Amino acid sequence: MLKKIGDIASVMNGFAFKSDEYKSEGLRLIRITNVQKGTIVESTPKFIDASRYKEFFGYLLRGGDILVSLTGNVGRVGILSKDFEPAVLNQRVGCIRARTELVDLKYLFHVLNSDKFENEAIKNSKGIAQLNLSAKWVEDYKIYLPAIADQRQIATVLDKVDALRQKRKESIKLLDDFLKATFLDMFGDPQENPKHFPLVQLQELYIDPKNGTKCGPFGSALKKEEIVDEGIPVWNMDNISLAGRFIAPFRMWITPEKYDALRSYSVLNGDVIISRAGTVGKMCVAKNKTESIISTNLIRVRFGQKLLPIFFVSLMNYCKGSVGRLKTGADGTFTHMSTGVLDNLTFPYPPLDLQKKFANIVEKVELQKQTIIRSQDEINNLFNALMQKYFG
Hints:
By secondary structure, the protein is an alpha+beta fold. The chain has nine helices and 22 strands. The protein folds into three domains: 2-145, Adenine-n6-DNA-methyltransferase TaqI, Chain A, domain 2 (Alpha-Beta Complex); 148-193 and 350-392, Bipartite methylase S protein (Helix Hairpins), CATH 1.10.287; 198-348, Adenine-n6-DNA-methyltransferase TaqI, Chain A, domain 2 (Alpha-Beta Complex). The chain has a five-stranded mixed beta sheet, with no helix packed on it. Strands 2-12-9-10 form a four-stranded antiparallel beta sheet. A four-stranded antiparallel beta sheet has the order 15-21-18-19. The radius of gyration is 23 Å and the shape is globular.
């Protein structure tokens, strides 16, 4: 039978805490940065004064609460561990507290962690540059609910297959850690510059002054009603991972005619794409096989022959807080990003041959990762097939 989430769980939104209320200890504040796909992660912790316990009693969280992102990467969920207690819920995060006599917690988690739920959440959100989902929509969302014994059996099967997926993820993380260690060994911390490389400004390495950087089109140039279901892909912030890789698939498209009008925002193979809003400073190297453009809150950077894009992205991802005067916030992301900031970014410039040597190592490691990713894809396909079988 179909049941609304609100029939089997309570749903609440977080409180709009202000940054000047943050303390160094007390009640842990669970924010949007803590909610990632399928998990609640440890982020630079923020706290609210514990003496305000009674004031925010209605926003207290428990281990086993399912949290859902309501802004940005909407529809991502994770189960809160008891290790986070005592904790309170910040705005832009929803809490789903299961009535365990009616629904198995892990079953409900798997339903909500499905692509189906995430896609529906995205489709029913408001906004283009930054999506926003209402807690009321979550409360009204309907799921298939068999007998509780069947729920537990389904959850057990999915847990076992998911454990295999997590092992593949860990293998990929170990390779990423190896690349970071290799980068620091070859080039050193840019703030200390132990290799004594000459200092350069990034704008000296652009393909040319006009085409070196480009901010995405203003909202008036790319309106919501001009987004179509297929055509020329539009890069969005969600297409860039924190690890510096492209995330498929594209979710926005424009017509070829609109692309011709916005061609100055096009993306070429080897361009670096950077977010300047939301999670500021996410970036990756574009490996384009088709035409595409950037959206409003992205910056496209295009280099000449003297700087390899993979070196620049690695520098920015591995050495946050040590590159030029760029500052990072409490969550580890950059506090500000613009074309002006990039133009004047000063950093140690290694010889091109050394950059190429690193790029070759990256290429070999990426080949190893592709083998793991193919295995991961097979497991994902099995997992998704089971999700489709159980949840439709």
